[in-house]
Every structure is written in C-alpha cells, then in structure tokens.
Amino acid sequence: MSSKNVIEVKGVNRIFPVPGGEFQALTDINVEIPEGNLAILKGRSGSGKTTLMNIIGTLDKPTSGIVKIDGKEIGDMSDIARENLRRRDMGFVFQAVSLIPTMNAFQNVEFSMRLAGIKAGRERDKRVEECLKLVGLGNRMHHMPAEMSGGEQQRVAIARAIAHRPKIILADEPTAELDSAMAAQVTALFKEMSRREQITVLMTTHDVGLMDAGDMVIELESGMQVHREEE
Ligand SMILES: Nc1ncnc2c1ncn2[C@@H]1O[C@H](COP(=O)(O)OP(=O)(O)O)[C@@H](O)[C@H]1O
Ligand SMILES: [Mg+2]
User: Residue 20: is its pLDDT beyond 70?
Assistant: First the structure.
C-alpha cells in the first residue's frame, strides 16, 4: 500500500466578495487524501463542498492556503500546466450534468479521451465501450443526451470522467439524481476504480447510506471542518 497523498490541502481559505462586504465560504481547511482512497465530502447544502471541490479541481483559487496535487503545488503552475493537469489527470462529475448535447453517449466519452491526448484507434474505442458498459449503458451508446433520462446522462458523465484513467476523480453529488440502487452501484463503481486502478476519488454526498463506502469522510459545517471523535 502506498501512502502518498495525491490531494493535499493546507490552510485553505476562500472569501467571496459579495455586495456590501465579503463572505467566507471556507475557513482553514486541511485535507490529505492518500492515493487510491475513496474520500467522501459531506455537509449540508451551503457548507462549502462545491467551493472546495472547485479549488481542488483547479477551477477556482483559494484566497489563501495551498493545494498540492500529486505533490505539486497548483498555485505555482501556469494556466496551461493547470489545464493539462485537469484534462489528463482529473475526471470531473458535476452536479448538473454537462454532456455536449450534439454528441451521443459514445462521442461524449470519446471527446474527453481526445482532450486527454489519447490517440484515436481500436484501443480508445474499446475503452469507451468498456466504460459505458461499466455504468450499465451498453445499450445506450448511440443515444443523444436528449434521448436519455437524467440518471442515464449522469452515468454517461461518470463514464466520461473515468475513461482516460485519471489519477483523481472529483465527483460533486454524482448520485443526487439517481435512485438508491443506482446510487449505491455508482459509489461501488468509484470504489472499484479506486482499488483496481489506484485512482483517488473525492465525492460529495449527503446520502448517509453511502458514507460507509468511503475510506475516509471529511465533513464541513458552514465552511469549517468538523472533527469528530471516532464513535
Ligand atoms: N461565487 C460566489 N460568490 C459568493 N458566494 C458564493 C459563491 N460561491 C459560493 N458561495 C457561497 O458559499 C457557500 C458555500 O457554497 P457551496 O460551496 O456551493 O456549498 P455546497 O456545495 O456545500 O452546497 C454558500 O453560502 C454559497 O452561497
Ligand atoms: Mg454543492
């Protein structure tokens, strides 16, 4: 077992300017997630989960504090280096499904592999199929997003997030639109990915039924970390 921390967050604060002042969305967040772990980020709506995910995903910058991905401090990187990191080493699942509406399921997954620099060919096609089958959509590969339910679209988004074998998957409430059986299945899939391919997964959820799947749970309350004694 490797104990390398793939995600490190140290003393992160995020303050948003708001009309008439500022709003502190995150206060002194410290997180270390070892390689191959499935970490669950929990907290009620407005507690700062998405803000933290966006900072770890290099989509937003902290007001202060540092974030290291795979040992590299992202604040020191150029915009291009950050973009490459996102495309090659990260897979995102957003709360609102963000498929490209003019591409079918297969093409949506293929597109993110193309952005990750994976060359066209049989191997890539096979990987797209494999990922869509993993999420139970082997029979929907050529459906357009508009021809699928919300849950099916979310599963395409998950296939897209894992296809290029990223080091990290950041999934923001990926199960919110799924029924409980599919939510458990998706969580189990993330766990399997973390075990089988040493992918580090950080997912947010408030579904208590899914907490047990996590190797670790990080809890936020009003932008602050909650440290609980082991029960
Ligand atoms: N760009 C922004 N400007 C001002 N306030 C924001 C911004 N983004 C988030 N917030 C506030 O920060 C808090 C945390 O939001 P968020 O991270 O989305 O919470 P969660 O994902 O846990 O529901 C909320 O009170 C939200 O209104
Ligand atoms: Mg959120």
Answer: yes
